[in-house]
Amino acid sequence: MSDQSLADAPDLTVPVPPGPVPSAPVRERRPQVELSVDGQLVSVPEGSTLLDACRQCEIDTPTLCYVETLTPVNVCRVCVVELEGSRTLVPACSRKAEPGMEIRTDTERVRLSRRMVLEFLSSSTDVTQSPELCGYMESYGADPERYGERDAQAESKAQPVKVDNELYVRDYAKCVLCYKCVEACGEDAQNTFAIAVAGRGFDAHIATEFDVSLPESACVYCGNCIGVCPTGALVFKAEHDLRQRGEWDASRQESTDTICPYCGVGCTLSVHTQDNQIVKVTSPLDQEVTSGNLCIKGRFGWQFTTSTPGTGDETSADGE
C-alpha cells in the first residue's frame, strides 16, 4: 500500500459522529367525508367504504365475502344498504363514501334482500359449520325450505369430500362461492394462484388449475385459504377427523396467542386447543406482521406435539 493511501485512510482513533435518528414517515391526514347513516352524521377518511362508516356508527352489517385484508369482490350481496337516490341497493363493503350520502341499513327493502340472499345460499349448501352465517339467518328470519326440501336442493352441489393430503380437507358441498380462498391464494396474499373459479353460471365451482389433485397443483400448503373460508368448505384435517368422530366441541376449546418459533419473522399464532391437544392454528387479522397469513410451518407444523407413545414417533430425553 502506498504512502498516499495510508495518508488518506481514516483515523480509527477518532470517533465517528452519530447519524440522524431514523423516524417513521409522517402519514398525511386524509380529508374527512361526512355522510348520514340511519340518521347519524358520521365523518370517515376519504376513500373509506360505507361498511367502514357503518362500523364507525357501531351498526352491525352482515358480511360473507368480505375480509379486511382482501380486495372486495362483491359476490355475496349480504351487506347491501339503501342509498338515497340510487335505483338499486349498493354493496357496503366496496361502495366508497361520498359527501352528503344518506344511507339506510335496516329498511324493509334491505332486510328482504338480505333474507333472500341467505335463503338462496343455504337452500343448496350445507352451512351448519358456519355459526356466523346461521346467526344471520336467524336474525333475518331466513327460511331456505321455502324453495323446497333442503336435502333435495343440496343434491345440486353434492360431491365427495376431497381428502388428498394430511393437512387440510376440501368439502365443496359447503362452498358458497365467496371467492375468499381465490383472493387469499392470489395477489392479495400468497401469489401462488393455485385456486381459481372454474366453469360459468350454475357450473361455477372452486378448483385447482386443470382440476388436478391438490398434491399435483401449485399449492404450497400455507393454509391461508382455510383462514378466510367462512363455511368450513376448507378445514384442517385434524378438525375434520374430530368432527367425523363426533368429538369436535368448540365450547371446550381455548385459544392462546404466541410467536411462531420456526424463523425470525415473528408471526403471531393463535393456538386452538381442546382437551390439552392442539386442533388448529390461526393468526389474528389485526397483526401487522401476519395480517392473518402464515406459511406451512406456522399453520401446520405442530403435529409433533401429538405424537403417540409406542408408535415410534416419540423421542426420549436423550434423543434416542
Description:
The structure is a single chain. The protein contains nine helices and twelve strands. With 320 residues, it is an alpha+beta fold. The protein folds into two domains: 120 residues, Ubiquitin-like (UB roll) (Roll), CATH 3.10.20; 148 residues, Alpha-Beta Plaits (2-Layer Sandwich). Strands 2-1-5-3-4 form a five-stranded mixed beta sheet, with helices on both faces. A three-stranded antiparallel beta sheet has the order 10-11-12. A two-stranded antiparallel ribbon has the order 6-9. β11 and β12 form a beta hairpin. α3 crosses α4. The longest helix is centred in the middle third of the chain and has 16 residues.
CATH class of the largest domain: Alpha Beta
Number of strand segments: 12
- What portion of residues is helical? 10-25%
Distance between the termini: 57 Å
What strand order characterises the main sheet? 2-1-5-3-4
Global shape: globular
